Amino acid sequence: MNELAPLATLGAADFKSAYKPIWCPGCGDYTVLSSLTKALATIQRPPHEVAVVSGIGCSSRIPAYTSCYGFHGVHGRALAAATGLKVARPDLTVIVTGGDGDGYSIGGNHFMHACRRNVDMTYIVMDNHVYGMTKGQASPTTEPDWDNKLSPGGTGIRAFHPLVIALAAGANFIGRGFSGDPNGTAAIIAQAIRHPGFSFVEILSPCITFRPEQKGWKEIVRAAPVDPTDDPALAARRIMTDDGFNIGVLYAGHRNPYPARVGLAERSVAELEREFEL
Ligand code: SF4
Ligand code: MG
C-alpha cells in the first residue's frame, strides 16, 4: 500500500484571494490582512476549514480578500452570525473581523454577549478611533477632544474601553496588536485562534485619511512590559492603567468554551412548523 503523500505546507499567500484591497494607500488594514494570512499559515488549517465573518466598514472587507469561506454581513451583526455558524459547524475555525464603529457601537451589545457566551472563535477589531467608510465621524473609541468638522471642539464623550469591557464580560483571551508590527500581530492572532473560547484581539490600525496624526502611533507603541496573566483582577488593573499602547497578549484565561450541542434537537423542523401553524 502506498503511503499518503504529506500535505503541502500552506503559506500566507494560500490564504489570500485574487481580489486586490481597495483601502486608501497607507491604511493600516493592509498589514492586518497580511498578519491574518500569516497567522492562518501558522495554524495550517486549509482555507476551506476556515470562515471569516464581518459586518460593515472599511476593515469589514477582509473576508473577500482571503481564500477562506467568508460572510460579509450587516452592520454590527458579525458576531451574531459567527456565533450561529460556530455552534452549527464546530469543526470550522471561525474568525470575525471588523472595526471600532461596527463592533463597539451598533455591535456593542453583541460584543458583550459574545464575550459572555465564550463560543470558541476569534474576534479581530481594527481600531482607528473613527468611522472611516462613512467619512470620518467620531466612533465609540474616539478621544473626547478630537476636533474635526463633524464634531467641532470634540464630542466631549469619554471613549469606550473595549479591552476592559471584554475582560469584565468574560472573554477568555485578550490581546492588543499594532498594524505597524505585522509579525508580532500575526503571532498574537495565531495564539488567539489556538486559545479555547472567545478570543478578542484589538489591533491599532491607523486611518491615514481621516486620522493622519495616527501615523505617530508607531513612535509610542511598545511591547507590554509584563508577561500575560490568567488572573482577571491583575489583567483588569493592567488594562485600566496602561495608556492604550502596550501591545501583546494581556490576558489568557481558563474558562470552558460554550459546548457544541449539534444534533441534540429532539424535534424536526416539520414538527416545529406544525406546532406554530395558525
Ligand atoms: Fe483605511 Fe481610513 Fe481609508 Fe478606510 S478611510 S480605507 S480606514 S485609511
Ligand atoms: Mg473605525
Describe how the helices and strands are arranged:
Blueprint: H1 29-43, E1 50-54, E2 69-72, H2 78-88, E3 93-99, H3 100-106, H4 108-117, E4 121-127, H5 162-169, E5 173-178, H6 182-194, E6 198-204, H7 217-220, E7 222-223, H8 232-241, E8 246-252, H9 269-275
Parallel strand pairs: 1-2, 1-3, 3-4, 4-6, 5-6, 7-8
Antiparallel strand pairs: 5-8
The chain binds iron/sulfur cluster (SF4) and magnesium ion (MG).
Bound small molecules, deduplicated: iron/sulfur cluster, magnesium ion
Q: What's the structural domain tally? A: 1
Give the CATH topology. Rossmann fold
What's the gyration radius in Å? Answer: 19 Å
How would you write the strand order of the largest sheet?
2-1-3-4-6-5-8-7
Assembly classification: single chain
Distance separating the two termini: 61 Å
Uncertain segments are: none
| Architecture per CATH nomenclature, i.e. the level-2 architecture | 3-Layer(aba) Sandwich
CATH class: Alpha Beta
